[in-house]
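Subject: for your reference before the review

Hello V.,

The reviewers asked for a structural picture of the protein, and I figured it would be easier to keep everything in one thread rather than splitting it across files. Below is the amino acid sequence we used in the manuscript, unchanged from the supplementary table.
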Amino acid sequence: MATILITNDDGYFSEGIRVLREVLKPLGRVVAVAPDRNLSGVGHSLTFTDPLRMRKVEDDFYTVIGGTPADCIHLGCFVVLEGNMPDLVCAGINEGPNLGEDITYSGTVSGAMEGRILGIPSIAFSVFGREEILFREIAPFCREIAQKVLEKGMPQDTYLNVNIPNLTSNEIRGVKITSQGKREYREKVFRYVSPTGEQLYWISAEEFGWSPREGTDYWAVMNGYISVTPLHLDLTNYRAVREMGYLER
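And here is what came back from the structure prediction:
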């Protein structure tokens, strides 16, 4: 039986990680290591300047006090599993989508990225919805994708970003392999003054839109499909390598 390590960025108490844990158990041993708080938007970060503490929630379920999703993957691999690498890392199920450029902010996607950095096939699962999320409808699709990856593997240097529409199983039209979409950002900084006169700031997305180009992650979920976007660790822009030779000397 396989060993699967799971994490998230919504915190160990979120419904998404608990449903994912249960639905993956038929595939093997499932070890959950998740942050002790909501860390949505934390991105890909490791904690080097402070010690971390880990608390056991129940059998094979731990929370990391002050840790990020990437920290959780490290502690899962090297503390809980004592260096015996899992067969698969899964992150999620995230409460909200991770599409387009948003993947750079996502702690969920970063949990999968950290797994891939450690040489483990990894998948990030997110749901396109924020209210009344149908976790029980969505979770079996996560298991199906995880099972196929365990059976077939995935290319080296690759991890998967999966976004699932917040629909019933009968409404989901299928699965599409997609490319990363593009978002049109319009963010705003709100200014406040505390009771003591201190200036406070809150960054918020005032409004945004998406490019509807067919074949992208956004296009897929908006049309009722599960989007599976293969990502890779090599961030090199190879076209720019060819075009910017004028900088060499």
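For the response letter, the relevant points are probably these. The chain has a mean pLDDT of 91. The CA atoms of residues 101 and 182 lie 6 Å apart.

Happy to draft the paragraph if you're swamped.

O.
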